[in-house]
Amino acid sequence: MKYLDLAMNAASSLGAEYADIRIQKTTDQVIFLRNLSLKSAHTSVLDGYGIRVFKEGAWGFAHNNVFSDEAVLATVQKAFDIATLSASVNKKKKLRLAPERSYIATWKTPVRIDPFDVPLSEKVDLMMEVNRTMLAFDGIKQAVFYMIMHKDEKLFASTLGTRLDITHQFIDPMIIATAIHDGDSQSRTFDEGGRAVGWEWIQNLNLIDKAKQIAEEALIKVKSESLGPETRRTLILDPNHLGLTMHESVGHPTELDRVLGWEADFAGVSFATPEKLKNFRYGSEIVNFVGDNTLAEGLATHGFDDDGVPGQKWHIIKDGILNEYGSTRDTAMEIDLGYSRGCNRATYYYDQPINRIPNLYLLPGTQPLTPSELIADTEDGVYIQGRGSFSIDQHRVNFQFGGDFFWEIKNGKLIRPLKKVLYKSCNPEFWNSCDAICDERFWRPFGVVNCGKGQPSQTARMTHGSAPARFRNIRVGGSQ
User: Fold this and answer.
1) Are residues 80 and 158 in the same domain?
2) Of 178, 198, 223, which closes a domain?
3) Cα torsion 345, 350, 352, 355: sign
4) Which tens digits make up the pLDDT trace of 237-248?
5) Pick from 44, 88, 225, 249: CA 20 to 30 A from residue 368's CA?
6) Where in the sequence is the domain holding 218, given as residue range(s)?
7) Residues of the chain with pLDDT under 70
8) Burial of 67 (0-12, 13-18, 19+ CB in 10 A)
9) Predicted TM-score of the model (pTM)
10) Does residue 230 sit in the same domain as residue 96?
11) Final residue belonging to a domain, choices 200, 223, 246
12) Measured between alpha carbons, how far is 456 from 384 in angstroms, rounded to an integer?
């Protein structure tokens, strides 16, 4: 598109040390059913461009949705003026950009069936059948099906000479069954968290069978007892549950902008500060976390980030030791890293890119170990499935998590289902208590499509993953 060269030539002529333009069209379709009533079926399109200019160690950003030569040039000028003003206000603090080469590339999410090509009626018919299946169970009083389909089409250019054509998309179905019994209500959820795939994933999920399962488990859950007073117990956590735990207690604390204190208002800073690199024991020796923006079907797998840096794979925690962060071209240089890990992403065209969590996952155990064997080797504990509530402090140290489904373990057996279970721990106590992880046969990915960050707030997506893992001597008890 001609506007790419027009904008970059204009920025260079003004004296920008670096500039880029991101032309982005975002299409979202959200369908929401409650019971057998279609509450919403909405498709929205946002189309425009954001321009960044780097001048004298400061950024300027401006956006527009008018596509004309005059509008593009005016937006470049505005971004340049903001950068110049920012540099004059903060003369002592000058940002640096990590070196990067230029790229000319096209990248697309591998999709066999584009969800936006599937008729709305076909989607709604499937969703109605799923809800009808859940409501057929006596005691299920509410069935919810919520589905998001998202597509970003981007053209990116920079003064480095980079020219990118990127199409990224994902789909996220979530179904919830709510049961009522004896004055209590409990819900069970099927939620994989979204994947960067097409409609073929929905076709292969067997959602009718999933609906039967979660309806049955909602009825089991509502009739279950709570755990009782808090005490130290063993936890076995399934991959879905661990996705949220690692997101909050590993993903956010290792975003380099949060480590540097650049992000504090919305979700706090981080205890994992740079002097801890290569020497701080974050977890036990079997704990290995990998940042991987090349992960197949990963929500943060875009080919390139919004700095024009390619996706990479690296250890964030290695053999339990804090090894590195998720970084961008400007945050990396604050700790003299010398290169970016490609974690700069914006939500919409009008958002300035910020440091985000990459696809982040816990490597599986290296020795053969099944979930059944893990449970059989546990005398007194709780097995938690699915995601629930969470709370974490402003330094990402102390935290509390719930879940979606629970079993009490006694003498190596699941003896009874539970409800209203919470556990409390802190970094690094929690990850250092990890003494067993099932092997790669049981590793599963789970996405996050609603990671909020920034002022003004943006929503990002990334994929987490793990195999079932065990944690010893954790504070676990029943909630009210």
Assistant:
1) yes
2) 223
3) negative
4) 999 999 999 999
5) 249
6) 2-223
7) 266, 480
8) middle
9) 0.96
10) no
11) 223
12) 35
